[in-house]
Amino acid sequence: HSKSVSARSAACRVIAHVDLDCFYAQVEMIRNPELRDKPLGVQQKYIVVTCNYEARKLGVKKLMSVKDAREKCPQLILVNGEDLTPYREMSYKVTELLGEFCPLVERLGFDENFVDITEIVEKRLNQQSGCSRVCVSGHVYNNQAINLHDTTHIRLVIGSQIAEEFREAIYARLGLTGCAGVASNKLLSKLVSGTFKPNQQTVLLPESCQDLIRSLDHIQKVPGIGYKTTKRLETLGVRNVCDLQAFPSTVLEKELGVSVAQRIQKLSYGEDDSPVTPTGPPQSFSDEDSFKKCSSEVEVKEKIEELLPNLLDRIHKDGRQPHTVRLTIRQFSSTDRWFNRESRQCPIPPHLIQKFGKESSNVISPLVDILMKLFRKMIDVDLPFHLTLLSVCFSNLKDLPSSKRGSIGFYLKQMSPPSGSGK
DNA sequence: TGGGGTTAT
DNA sequence: ATAACCC
């Protein structure tokens, strides 16, 4: 047994943030190695969602329209990335690999993971208890000098060695490159991981924390401060991190509520006590499609029927049973394309839940019926309508009762890579 | 601007 | 059910 760090003293946490380089493009280059040295973009609808570094050299940016990207770079090769299955599968392989080192792995999107490596660092500290040579891996933020008598510095340096091992394992086993950041909390590890950009890593020592957080030119670059909060802060005259640090907390609490105000003001000082929460298996499975126009009940039904088979396949491979189903729509609006999403959800009838695991039972038709009922709760089908998105989501996943758990559920690993999906 | 995800209220 | 956040 190990004495936990928290029980010992106030030794700092050591957190690694691992961020794969242009993830979708890398996966596509593995699937088709001929694309390796060519400018490559991954397209969803009219958008190049990401591109490799060859393309970036030629002026292509993330989330650029296909039109602009082709103008900038006529040689650009585009592959369709609307089906996320290959990316999702590779993504879980990365998370599982990190899980071999340590149980505390938290996913953020498909291409980022936080790992709490405090315990691994402690173990190495105790092993090499003599003063064997400690050498940093990768960059040190600000080029700050390391003080070998400072145990916090030593812990972070050991953290940088572990991060290097993570990146080497991810490259050796999966062929993927990425960046890493090592620091004393999630916020800082994430911010510092981006300082040297493809395929490099950086460690932050506490003395440079303020330099890092103040280097952010706009508050929306602070993870946790999003679009809405930024807008409201701007009306208060808060434009950068220093403004937020100095802003009166009482006024901030009145504008944003105590919880948000206190959290983001701590973030502005680089403070973040949120734990690395092991992600485990997914909480939901969803599949969506966007389009120019969908305006009849028949079309809606067809779209739903397209979405369902892949979703059911993913759920089947997961082995758990969903107890809730949700339909989300987006109605056309010339002003603001976000925000006008609505959804309706309902419990899945028990007799249908039973049939989820089984082969060849037709669960599709009754589900379509349920989803069309949910649709009619949102849209009066006697009036004209204009949808631009449909999404189906299964959630409230529960393990099968052990009595009737088949081979699928029994042999699946904890972090099962869900798969199937797409259009 | 896509096609996903999460947690808080 | 929505709103906020993340990629």
TrEMBL record:
Family: Belongs to the DNA polymerase type-Y family.
Lineage: Eukaryota, Metazoa, Chordata, Craniata, Vertebrata
Quaternary structure note: Interacts with POLH. Interacts with REV1. Interacts with ubiquitin.
Protein name: DNA polymerase iota
Residues of the UmuC domain: 15-226
Gene coding for it: Poli
Protein's organism: Fregetta grallaria
Catalysed transformations (reactions): DNA(n) + a 2'-deoxyribonucleoside 5'-triphosphate = DNA(n+1) + diphosphate
Protein role: Error-prone DNA polymerase specifically involved in DNA repair. Plays an important role in translesion synthesis, where the normal high-fidelity DNA polymerases cannot proceed and DNA synthesis stalls. Favors Hoogsteen base-pairing in the active site. Inserts the correct base with high-fidelity opposite an adenosine template. Exhibits low fidelity and efficiency opposite a thymidine template, where it will preferentially insert guanosine. May play a role in hypermutation of immunoglobulin genes. Forms a Schiff base with 5'-deoxyribose phosphate at abasic sites, but may not have lyase activity.
Highest taxon of the lineage: Eukaryota
Cofactor: Mn(2+); Mg(2+)
One MF annotation (Gene Ontology) recorded for this entry: DNA-directed DNA polymerase activity
PROSITE patterns the record matches: UMUC
Pfam family, one: IMS_HHH_1
